Amino acid sequence: MPAAAAPTHLRARALPSVTGALRAVEGLLLGAGQRTARRNAWTSVLEDRRRARDRIEAQHVLEAASGRASRAT
To answer: Is the pTM of this model over 0.85?
Structure first.
């Protein structure tokens, strides 16, 4: 006798992504304002890193144009 298919609500779901799991935990632990503040802070960190890379690249271009060797490694 063939087994009947499990109802949709009982079927196994794919495991959530790490990001999804972290956001779920974050949702349980932090209020909405704290989540927003944390995300804004992380966005600022990423933007600061991008600006730092841009500054280093501009410094290398200026040093190359002036004929000086870069001291940065």
So the answer is: no
